[in-house]
Amino acid sequence: MDKINIKMDIRGFIRFSNEALKELKLDKNPFADIEVDVEGKRIAVTPTKTLKTSSFRFMPNGAGYLLYFKGAMNATGFQVAPGPYTMVKEGNKFVFTGKAPAKKKGAWQPFACRNSVGIPMLSIDSRGTIIFDKRTCTAVETAKNDTMVAEYDANKKVFTLTFSKKGFINVRTIASHANASFMGTLSSHGIALPTKSFRTSCKIDGKVITFSVANLVAEQKAKVKAAKAKK
């Protein structure tokens, strides 16, 4: 099957037809890797059995399955327009181009799910705000434990955040997420702000969250080294 039929609803979810379910092999591939091509205005969906920190989930709904698509559409400049569409198979990808074929093609870029389907996650944006996903803020009860203390192990490149009612950093819970200002904490340990959102998995033990910034530190060192090499 070179094409599969889908339907989009007003919320930005797409529903897969019964024929598409067989082609996607969703009984064996409950997760989805989503990639976007901003230049070509294309979105690719790759069904997979492997859960990653970026994974989306195919959600059972009545006789079909739903996949959240609005975020990827926003990233590629599409407007949510309910109705029927088709996706074209390219290798192991199923590609969405709206109502018309893509006129040009750019590079595929991974598009991560904001809420991981099975892994506690947090992110730090370019302004230094740390953002906890629903799974994480629910686990440590940020609505009740609305402050935290941050400790950093420079050798391991690991932060330990302890949540309570009497910490030093205020934590705000908004809807299904929680956030806090982390710029000063990063700066005090000589860690530069990420140039784009840094997203990582974390571990939860009671009201304590630990996460590594080793990849962020390594990326920043590589940029400094590259900048020096150009001089």
Shape: globular
- What's the main sheet like? 10 strands, antiparallel
Structural class: alpha+beta
H-E string:
EEHEEEEEHEEEEEHEEEEEHEEEH
Mean pLDDT over the full residue set: 90
Distance between the termini: 54 Å
Report the total helices.
5
What's the number of extended β-strand segments? 20
Low-confidence stretches: none
Helicity range: 10-25%
Radius of gyration: 20 Å
In terms of DSSP E residues, the strand content is 35-45%
Provide an overview of this structure.
The chain has 231 residues and is α+β, with helices and mostly antiparallel strands. 19% of the residues lie in helices and 40% in strands. The protein is built from five helices and 20 strands. It has helices at residues 18-24, 70-76, 134-139, 183-188, 214-230; strands at 3-8, 13-16, 31-37, 42-48, 56-57, 59-61, 64-68, 83-90, 93-96, 109-111, 121-124, 129-132, 147-153, 158-164, 169-170, 172-174, 177-181, 198-201, 203-205, 208-212. Strands 1, 2, 3, 4, 5, 6, 7, 8, 9 and 10 form a ten-stranded antiparallel beta sheet that branches. β19 and β20 form a beta hairpin. The longest helix has 17 residues, at 214-230. The chain is globular and about 55 Å long.
Quick rundown:
This protein has 231 residues and is α+β, with helices and mostly antiparallel strands. The chain has 5 helices and 20 strands.
Chain-wise SSE layout:
Layout lengths: L2 E6 L4 E4 L1 H7 L6 E7 L4 E7 L7 E2 L1 E3 L2 E5 L1 H7 L6 E8 L2 E4 L12 E3 L9 E4 L4 E4 L1 H6 L7 E7 L4 E7 L4 E2 L1 E3 L2 E5 L1 H6 L9 E4 L1 E3 L2 E5 L1 H17 L1
